[in-house]
Amino acid sequence: MTAAELSAALAKSEVSATEVTQAHLDRIAAVDDRVHAFLHIAADSALAQAAEVDKRRKTGEQLAPLAGVPVAVKDVFTTKNMPTTCGSHILDGWHPPYDATITQRLKQAGAIILGKTNMDEFAMGSSTENSAFGPSRNPWDLDKVPGGSSGGSAAAVAAYEAPLAIGTDTGGSIRQPAAVCGIVGTKPTYGGSSRYGVVAFASSLDTPGPFGRTVLDAALLHEAISGHDPMDSTSIDAPVPPVVAAAREADVSGMRIGVVTDLSGDGYQPGVLSRFAEAVEVLESLGAKVTEVSCPHFRYALPAYYLIAPSEASSNLARFDAMRYGLRVGDDGSRDAEEVMALTREVGFGAEVKRRIILGTHALSSGYYDAYYGKAQKVRTLIIRDFDAAFGQVDVLVSPATPTTAFRLGERADDPMAMYLADLCTIPSDLAGNAAISVPCGLAAEDGLPVGLQVMAPALADDRLYRVAAAAEAAFTHRWGQPLLTSAKGLAS
Amino acid sequence: MTTTTTDRLVPFDEAVQRYDPVIGLETHVELGTRTKMFCGCPTTFGAEPNSQVCPVCLGLPGSLPVVNRKAIEYTIRIGLALNCSIATWCRFARKNYFYPDMPKNFQISQYDEPLCTDGWLDVTVNDKTIRVGIERVHLEEDTGKSMHVGGATGRIHGAEYSLVDYNRAGIPLVEIVTKPIEGTGADAPVAARLYVTELRDLLRSLGVSDVRMEEGSLRCDVNTSLAPRGSGRLGTRTETKNVNSLRSVERAVRFEIERQAAVLDSGARVILQTRHFHEDTGTTTPGRSKEEAQDYRYFPEPDLVPVAPPKEWVEQIRAALPEAPSARRARLQAEWDLSEADMTALANAGALDLVAETVAAGASPADARKWWLGELARRANDAATELADLAITPADVARVAELVATGALNDRLARVVIDAVLAGEGTPDEVVAARGLAVVSDEGALTTAIDEAIAANPDVVAKIRDGKVAAAGVLVGAVMKTTRGKADAPRVHELILKRLS
């Protein structure tokens, strides 16, 4: 059942929150040793939350749409009474004393928090292979990566362990795993969803957002977590775009859709490009006006991103120093504080995190700042201008969500550049802070793995994403005769 | 703790004959906002360690800062009072370095976009007004406070263990940086002290901080350099930290002048470095060398949106600025008709505000000054306390002065009343009523007492009648004795002479 269907059944008391929660815990118990989507399963608190929702419903209380619907939460959000690891050993033993704003909003909405999902360490990666706790697997093919960094959240939803999940997108960490797992994932407008309690990777880019198996499900979760948060200065004080209504309308007639010509060509898997071309035709057949748009500075997005994000990360991750929480190594009385800090960071951080800390420290250092961080910020401005110019002509932009389908575990683990290319299509929207979604648009002919269609919209026009994605989803499902995910065979045996 | 130093020194007078000192001051002021810079934690001084903390000021993973609007307002107020330009748009920046008392291992500060720039503050040194240029005024967060236990120096090196109190972490801190102050010559140490004094008074009048150096809410770093006299060059500077009293500011500059002069005399170069001031010896010792200074890797704080104070708001703050202490002093000096020296004496005694309030309560400036600098200064001195901390209000003093002026009290009785007020017996009127201290002004009673005195001292009466008027003092004394001091002596004197004429 989709989250929307669960919500309806719960509202009519056809099923109890306890039953729904138990069913998902059972599914987790059955498949998660193979998928490894979860780092922490909160069975007891989930059932307690479910019982509370059932009790409230019995009293006739009007509950929020997600009351009783289970959600998996990426382990980058702080959660009271649960560990929060960010996929890193450096936070070993830390139980945050406070809930992230989004954790709080989920709880207030009555959503059931099933547990914390796996991720690349500090959200740095595109496969979950950088998790200190081992990778998650793609439910379409267990030898393939589920994408990342929010790979655990995507895999949990694709494996029916949770109907919904929360992730964060910094360079594509929601859309890329959604695309390669054949589900829907949205990066809302930067500032549309609160970062308070999201352990920071790159503050100017990190954006929490939803995963669902359908566009409507993603919209329901999107709406539940969005809205101004006074605890986050970068949170936007504006009404939440009507994403659920847009997902229900699913009407693209008359919409102007721009195909980004710069996000195609060399390095793109042929099967991805052909599914994308088909998707564009489908949208056109639904009444959209399709044109080609060039965004010439997108080609510099990846290098700019790999200066800005590591620079911010090098500063954000400085606080993990063994002094106040988490791992402490070598504090045996023979070392001073500085040595304990250094040793703890040496042991506690993985290779990719260290690589980016060093990269970012260098980019910010005196004498290099202008050439690296400063230049990258200028590129960022140029990319924003590209978007502004494009959105002057069209309502939304479309591209493939990823250049390729899911790759094999280990295939890119030793080749950071190859790994970084997985985010080629998603990074521009992060740098610009606008909104983007990935929605399944079929399977690539050569490997039978899912392909994602990316839709990008101006900041605070998140509803347009859902309008386009829902229309495409309806047309595709009609064409396929069933939801794409029913073809996923990784867990069939 | 004592500090030994092997530095050779040149006597101060010689040093300033051969070298021109240039000084510069960086002053940190903890703002008196109710809550911290980026969270809602209280800022009360002296609370139980680590009792005023939350995820934000502890820098816990996931927490985010939100700017305290009051702190921005206070900083703008300071900037305006220092004649600065206020930025229409500026950003916070992260200053990155590792230290256990820094919860995030970066400090949110301001770098190349300070809130206030390019102002000045006038300071009077030996009757000469020096205009001290203000380079910038910016806002940042304070760090936690480390306490190093064990070891000889109280510093981190050699300590057995260290404790950190994060109550101070995140308290809004304003940094005020002067431009180089040149041309003060031998007055450089005094000028440094008077600048800090003037700044402290200004900040106090603005109501933005309690500016207590002993509690660390006002902290000073003093830069000093020397150049050969008349060369017009700028020498290599040292930055002396840990200068925690007005007197220390002066001593630190003086010591550095003496030390640097010896270095330069020997043909060596002054090393660009941080030095620590030691209260006990009045000397400085080297800290870390600036040449191996850390790279703070400043970059704009991505967790905060830029600060863009609307022009109307800035103008509102400007319009509400109180009179500057220097302008007020000049005005009061004119109003009270005092000399510069009298005014300085008042200021040095910490009596300026008290006198002003006493005058405002109705006393004449002369009376107010007389009581605070005389009788009350003695009482404060005896009790080893500040004038302002005496248990008597300016209104009480004004009332006593009034009672004396109307003849209801004489000076002796007034002192009794003041003692009683200080002892907590109530207002002057209450004390007078309770103790029956009013001067005997009943002419009948006085006449009787005078007649008695005349009758009892015929020889004195004879002398007075012979023209030795001074002898009347004996009769006055006798009358005062009969009335137990409650008579107005000049009046008694007058009555006696009238009676005998």
In CATH terms, the superfamily of chain A is: Amidase signature (AS) domain
Q: What strand line-up does the widest sheet of chain A have?
A: 1-3-2-4-6-5-10-11-9-7-8
Strand percentage of chain B lies at 15-25%
Instruction: Supply the number of helical segments of chain A.
Output: 16
**Could you spell the SSE succession of chain B in H and E letters?**
HEHEEEEEEEEHEEHEEEHHHHHHHHHHHH
The CATH level-2 architecture of chain A is identified as: Alpha-Beta Complex
- Category by helix and strand content of chain B: alpha+beta
> Mind telling me the C-alpha Rg of chain A?
21 Å
**Strand residues, percent of chain A:** 5-15%
Largest sheet of chain B: 9 strands, mixed
Radius of gyration of chain B: 30 Å
Properties at a glance:
heterodimer; A: alpha/beta; 16 helices; 11 strands; B: 501 residues; Arc Repressor Mutant, subunit A; 3 domains; nine-stranded mixed β-sheet; 14 strands; 39% helix
Please tell me about this protein's structure:
The complex is a heterodimer of chains A (493) and B (501). Chain A is α/β, with parallel strands linked by helices and 493 residues long. Chain A has one domain: Amidase signature (AS) domain (Amidase signature (AS) enzymes, Alpha-Beta Complex), CATH 3.90.1300.10. Chain A has 16 helices and eleven strands. In chain A, strands 1-3-2-4-6-5-10-11-9-7-8 form an eleven-stranded mixed β-sheet, with helices on both faces. In chain A, helix 2 packs antiparallel against helix 3 (43-58), helix 8 (243-249) runs parallel beside helix 16 (462-480) and helix 10 (301-316) packs across helix 13 (370-393). Chain A is globular, with a radius of gyration of 21 Å. Chain B is an alpha+beta fold and 501 residues long. Chain B folds into three domains: 12-317, no CATH class; 323-435, no CATH class; 443-500, Arc Repressor Mutant, subunit A (Orthogonal Bundle), CATH 1.10.10.410. Chain B is built from 16 helices and 14 strands. Chain B has helices at residues 12-18, 69-81, 188-206, 246-265, 311-319, 325-336, 340-348, 352-360, 365-382, 394-405, 411-422, 428-435, 443-456, 458-465, 472-482, 489-500; strands spanning 19-30, 85-86, 93-96, 106-109, 116-125, 128-141, 145-149, 161-165, 172-178, 218-228, 238-243, 273-278, 283-289, 299-300. Chain B has a nine-stranded mixed β-sheet with strand order 2-5-6-9-1-10-11-12-13. A three-stranded antiparallel β-sheet of chain B has the order 4-3-14, with no helix packed on it. In chain B, a hairpin with a 4-residue loop joins strand 12 and strand 13 (283-289). In chain B, helix 1 (12-18) crosses helix 4 (246-265). The longest helix of chain B has 20 residues, at 246-265. Chain B is elongated, with a radius of gyration of 30 Å. The model of chain B has no long low-confidence stretch (mean pLDDT 90).
